[in-house]
Amino acid sequence: MTIRIVVAEDQAAVRAAVVMILRAEPDLEVVGEAADGEEAVRLALLLRPDVVLMDIQMPRLDGVSATRRVVSAGAGQVLVLTTFDLDEYVYGALRAGAAGFLLKDLEADALVDGIRAVARGDGMLAPSVTRRLISTFARPAADDRPDARAAVGELTPREREVLACIGAGLSNGQIAERLEMAEATTKTHVSRILAKLQLRSRVQAAILAQELGILTTD
């Protein structure tokens, strides 16, 4: 399966380098390049890629706003790739529905792996931001959303198990193995969980599981 990608990056040299890395992979296809947020949204709506690789600081429309538009339109998964790991960017991108957040200082293999992970429905976070998300963002948010626990209560027992696994950082394949079910069934459960909880990405689901203390028994 070929993964179709739109690369949104305002710096031409950086964009060219990223595109070169991606085009070296046989299963990745760059179908569009955008130099600003407005163009990123336009190309996503037009081309319907599997993944939009999105910078944060861009002219005309910032990456967080562009992410929100792409995700709301169902025009592809968004993987944020930026130089900055400031809280406002991390939280803003994930609230907007980004499926992942990576920093530009990563190795090429890690970028490629991140795109593949997001394309298959898994989340991807830079290690440097994961602990901060849990300690300073996820837990306080529970008090701001008193309906969150009630919404989780509407999940089936199996869906709660899947949600707990998502919160533990497991991929769809790992969830399928742990719960002894087909990976396609796992993907269906994840989609239903996101719909029932009105979440935009599995990263948001993982944060919710963490803040509500929904944990795996293993």
Describe this structure in words.
The structure is a single chain. This protein is an alpha/beta fold and 218 residues long. The chain has 2 domains: 3-129, Response regulator (Rossmann fold); 136-211, 3-Layer(aba) Sandwich (Rossmann fold), CATH 3.40.50. It is 56% helix and 13% strand. The chain contains 11 helices and 6 strands. The chain has a 6-stranded parallel β-sheet, with helices on both faces. β5, α5 (108-119) and β6 form a beta-alpha-beta unit. α2 (37-47) runs parallel beside α3 and α6 crosses α11. The protein is globular and about 50 Å long. The protein starts with a strand and ends in a 7-residue tail after the last helix.
Strand order of the largest sheet: 2-1-3-4-5-6
- The secondary structure category is alpha/beta
Radius of gyration: 17 Å
> CATH homologous superfamily of the largest domain?
Response regulator
**What series of H and E elements makes up the topology?**
EHEHEHEHEHEHHHHHH
Q: DSSP strand (E) fraction?
A: 5-15%
* Strand count: 6
Number of helices: 11
CATH class of the largest domain: Alpha Beta
InterPro entries: CheY-like_superfamily, NreC/VraR/RcsB-like_REC, Sig_transdc_resp-reg_C-effctor, Sig_transdc_resp-reg_receiver, Tscrpt_reg_LuxR_C, WalR-like
Modified residues (4-aspartylphosphate): 55
GO molecular function: DNA binding
Domain Response regulatory: 4-119
